[in-house]
Amino acid sequence: MAELLRTHPLEAWTTAFERLPDTVGIAVEPFVAMADVRLGTVDSEAGTRLGVDLPTEANTWVPAEAGRAVWLGPDEWLLSSTTEAPEELEARVRAAVLPLGGSATDVSAQRIGLRLTGARVRDVLAKGCSVDLHPRVFGRGSSAQTTLGQAGVVLLSLSDTGEDHVVLVRSSFAGYLADWLLDAALEFTHTPTR
Amino acid sequence: MQLIECPWCGPREEVEFSYGGQAHVPYPDDPGGLSDEEWAHYVFFRDNTKGRFAERWNHSIGCRRWFNAIRDTATYRFERVYRLDDPKPVTP
Questions:
Q1: Predicted TM-score of the model (pTM)
Q2: Is B62 in CB contact (< 8 Å) with chain A?
Q3: What CATH code is carried by the domain that includes residue A86?
Q4: What is the tally of structural domains in chain A?
Q5: Are residues A136 and A78 in the same domain?
Q6: Which residues of chain B have a CB within 8 Å of the CB of A144?
Q7: Are A55 and A79 within one domain?
Q8: Is A183 helix (H, G, I), strand (E, B) or coil?
Q9: Whether residue A138 is found in the same domain as residue A166
Q10: CB pairs under 8 A, 24+ apart, for A123-129?
Q11: With contacts defined as CB-CB under 8 Å, which chain A residues touch B8?
Q12: ipTM topping 0.95
C-alpha cells in the first residue's frame, strides 16, 4: 500500500508567499487542533471547566491557554490549541461542556490559518471584504465571519494597528484564497523604478 | 452591493444571506384536523405583497442564525431586522 504523507493544502504556494514584500506578508500557520463548541448559557462555571471565558460579545475572540476562543454565534465557539492533539482537545472540551448541556466536535481538518502581516494588508483584504477593517473598529480581539473574495472565512485581528491578521479558511478553498490573495497583493509587490 | 444588517454580526454583504420566505406563518393548532386543502394552504400558499413584507433570512456564510426582516419588495430596502423571538415590529 502506498504510504500516505501528510501534506499541507498550500504547500505549492509557499515559494510565492516567501517572495512577497514585508508590507503584504502572507505566511501559512502550522496545523492546530480546533474544536467547535455549542453551549447554551455561558457562566463562570463554564469558564472554570474550560479554562477560558468564552467571549459572549459578537465578533470577538480571546486568547486561550494555548490557542484561541473565537465567537462563531450566540451559542457557538471555535476553540483552538497549539499544544494538544485534535482528539485530546475534543475529549477535554467535551468533558468540560457535556455536564452543562453543551457539545464539542473536532473540526481540526476543516480550516487552515493564514497569517497576514504588514502595512498594506488591510488594503489587500478590503478588496474582497465589506467589513470595516480600520483598527479603530476592528482592533485586537475582533473577529468576523464573512466572505473574502468568494470564500467564507473567519477573520481575526491580532493587533491594534491593523497590520496583523489571521484568516481561517476551509482547506478546500485554501488554494483559491491563496491565488486570490496573491492577485490582490500584486499592486503592492512592485517597487517603482525611475 | 447591498449590506444586510445581521442582528448578531452587524452589516454584511448580501451574498452571505439566504432567503427563507414569509415570516410569522403559524403552525396549525390542530394539524390532524386539517383537510388536504387546508394543509396545502398552510404549506404552499404565501402572501405576494408589494411593499413592506416580513421575511425570514439566514446569515448562512456567517453566524448561520435565522432572523426576521421587514423588507420592501418594491425597492428591496431592508427597513428593519429583528431576532426570531422578537415580536413583529409595527411599521408606520
A1: 0.90
A2: yes
A3: 3.30.70.1520
A4: 2
A5: no
A6: 9
A7: yes
A8: helix
A9: yes
A10: A123/A188, A124/A24, A124/A181, A124/A184, A124/A185, A124/A188, A125/A155, A125/A165, A125/A184, A127/A184, A128/A180, A128/A184, A129/A155
A11: 58, 73-74
A12: no
Instruction: Write the burial class of residue A6 (CB in 10 Å: 0-12 exposed, 13-18 middle, 19+ buried).
Output: exposed
- Contact: B10, A74; criterion CB under 8 Å: no
- Which value, to the nearest 10 degrees, does the dihedral of the CA atoms of residues A60, A63, A65, A70 take? 30
Residue B90 pLDDT level (bands cut at 50, 70, 90): confident
- In single-letter form, the type of residue at position A33 comes to A
Residue A52 resides in a domain: yes
Query: CB A130 to CB B3 under 8 A?
Result: yes
Residue A165 sits in a domain whose CATH number is 3.30.1360.120
Residue type, B57: W
Q: What is the pLDDT along chain A (194 residues), one digit of tens a residue?
A: 788 887 889 999 999 999 999 999 999 999 999 999 999 988 899 999 999 999 999 999 999 989 999 999 999 999 999 999 999 999 999 999 999 999 999 999 999 999 999 999 999 999 999 999 999 999 999 999 999 999 999 999 999 999 999 999 999 999 999 999 999 999 998 765 65
Q: Cα–Cα distance between B33 and A146 in angstroms, integer?
A: 45
Q: Could you identify the residue written with the cell 448559557? A: A41
Which 46-75 residues of chain A touch chain B by CB within 8 A?
58-59, 72-74
CA distance B87 to chain A (A): 19
Give the count of beta carbons closer than 10 Å to the beta carbon of residue A90: 21
Cβ-based neighbours of A111, under 8 Å, separated by 6 or more = A34, A154, A168, A169, A170, A171
Q: Rounded to an integer, what distance in angstroms lies between the CA atom of residue A78 and that of residue A72?
A: 7
Helix (H) or strand (E) segment spanning residue A81 = strand A76-81
First to last CA, chain A: 58
Nearest Cα residue in chain B from A132: B11
